[in-house]
Amino acid sequence: MSAVRSKICGITRIEDALAAVEAGADAIGFVFYAKSPRAVTFQQARAIIKALPPFVTTVGLFVNASRCELGEILDAVPLDLLQFHGDEPAEDCEGWNRPYIKALRVKAGDDIRAACDAFPGASGILLDAYVEGVPGGTGEAFDWSLIPQGLSKPLILAGGLNPDNVAAAIARVRPYAVDVSGGVEASKGIKDHAKIQAFIKAIRDVTAG
C-alpha cells in the first residue's frame, strides 16, 4: 500500500508540534476559528512555526472567515496550505497565492463526487463527519461506505480517527492522507504525545503490510 500522509490538527503548543514532528507527522494544523477550543492567535501560530524544522507543512484551518480576517492572518503567519472548513464557495478559497484543501462534512444522501468537483482548484478534499451546527473537531466518525471511488482530488480522511481505528480506516478507504485532532488529545487543545506516536505507528504498520 502507498504511504499515507498524516496531519495533526488543533496544535496550540510548541511542545505538541515538536512531538508530532518527532513521531513523523507530515503536517501541523492550526485552527483560526474563535469558537473552537483549539483556536490559536496568529502570535501563537507564528511562534510554533518558528520552532519547527524544515519540510513540515503548516496548515491554517478557517471557518467562513472574512477576506479581511483571512488576509490579516496570512500577512502575519507563514502558512503553507489553507484548509477551508465552513460553507465557503470555491471563489472564496482561491486567490490567496497558497494551495488549499476544502473540507466537506459527510452525511447520508450527499453527492460527494459533485461536491468535490465544485472545487476544481483544490489540492485535495477532506471528508469529515457531519454534526449539526459544528463545523469540525467533533470526534465523531462517519460511515466510510458513503465515500465513492475515484474522486477527482486526493482524499484526506478525518472524523473520529484515533490510534485504535486509523488502520482500519486506511485499509477501508485508502486515502491520500489522514487528519486527527481530538483522537490524540489529553484534553481539548492539549495533545497526548504517546497517542500521537501510536497514531503514526498505526499508519506506518498498515501501509507497510
Automatic annotation (TrEMBL):
Sequence ranges assigned to domain N-(5'phosphoribosyl) anthranilate isomerase (PRAI) in this UniProt record: 7-201
Which Enzyme Commission number(s) are on file for it?
A: 5.3.1.24
Molecular functions (GO terms): phosphoribosylanthranilate isomerase activity
Q: What class of enzyme is it?
A: isomerase
Query: SUPFAM superfamilies annotated for this entry?
Result: Ribulose-phoshate binding barrel (SSF51366)
Q: Any idea which UniProt keywords this protein has?
A: Amino-acid biosynthesis, Aromatic amino acid biosynthesis, Isomerase, Tryptophan biosynthesis
Q: Please write the reaction equations for the catalytic activity of this protein.
A: N-(5-phospho-beta-D-ribosyl)anthranilate = 1-(2-carboxyphenylamino)-1-deoxy-D-ribulose 5-phosphate
Residue ranges spanning the membrane: these are none
Which Pfam families does this chain map to? PRAI
GO terms (BP aspect): L-tryptophan biosynthetic process
Pathway the protein takes part in: Amino-acid biosynthesis; L-tryptophan biosynthesis; L-tryptophan from chorismate: step 3/5
Family assignment?
Belongs to the TrpF family.
What name does this protein carry? Answer: N-(5'-phosphoribosyl)anthranilate isomerase
Print the organism lineage.
Bacteria, Pseudomonadati, Pseudomonadota, Gammaproteobacteria, Pseudomonadales
Q: Which gene encodes it?
A: trpF
